[in-house]
Amino acid sequence: MLAEYYKAATEGAAVAEKDWLGVVKLTGAERVSWLQGMITNDVQKLAPGTGCYAAHLTPQGKIVAQMHVLMDEDALWLSLERAATPKLIAAFDKLLIMEDVQVADVSEEYSILGVLGPKAAAALDSWLGEPLNLDGRYSHRRSGDCRIVVSDLGYDVWVPRGQADKVLRLLAGSGATAIDHGTWDVLRTEAGLPVYGVDIDETTTMPEIGETGINYDKGCYIGQEVVAKVKYIGHVNRRFVGLTISKNELPELKSAIRKGGREVGYITTTLFSPALNKPIALGFVSRAAYAPGSEVEVGTASATIVGLPFVK
Residue 97's CB: how many other CB atoms inside 10 A? Predict the structure, then answer.
């Protein structure tokens, strides 16, 4: 089925239920100014209907949660992995003192459906009965009780939980093929997107996965000093990278990456890429080997460090 699902997602339209994502809602008069001091990107510049990628860090610069922040007229919405949601809520609760901000985990109220592929917008237009009219990554709009967001891989449709099956059927009737989590995982790996709890966790710093999601010109936020020091004074000691594997065998997760017999990193995700017709992996590699084109070893196979994404 992978071949059929992958073809739908890369040549037509596909829909996947993203049950690993949760939603946190921020309300209150001081929600924007408060969140500005909590995350790595600039939320004060966001207009309603726009959004950004960001993270909340520990004071040591480690990632507590990565998220997509969506600005609404009367609320801020955070979309993030459920694996990180309890830690984020606990951290926010400790950091709220007297501010007029209410933080609510509303994950159980929504199902998130990912709609992707070159015909995804047409499928959504058909389902909505009108043009989607969304321009730019993380732009979003409401449609009835649903919210549609431009995501890193197509679109996310937030649906009231009780309506998810109905919306799935309607999207299928509009031309979207339902695909499984495994197919989505192939697509997000080819796109080089890290998943919290799989590829990254509280041992990861934001600069190790790139500068997307970091605004260096905004005011202070928790962990900023560490992030700024990396950019202006030092460097990252390791980096999140892609690898192409020479053999057709998939290395085990957490397999060591070696260069010249010395361990220089480890694998976080590995699978077969239909686009490249070879095994690929995501992982962390030290400065000694993280430049694209570097030759390394994973198990008994040779591998090459490549820039992300694998497929553009």
Answer: 7
Q: What is the full per-residue pLDDT of the chain (312 aa) written as tens digits?
A: 789 999 999 999 999 999 999 999 999 999 999 999 999 999 999 999 999 999 999 999 999 999 999 999 999 999 999 999 999 999 999 999 999 999 999 999 999 999 999 999 999 999 999 999 999 999 999 999 999 999 999 999 999 999 999 999 999 999 999 999 999 999 999 999 999 999 999 999 999 999 999 999 998 999 999 999 999 988 899 999 999 999 998 999 999 999 999 999 999 999 999 999 999 999 999 999 999 999 999 999 999 999 999 998
Considering the entire predicted model, what is its pTM?
A: 0.96
C-alpha 230, offset from chain centre = 22
Distance CA 200, CA 286 (A): 15
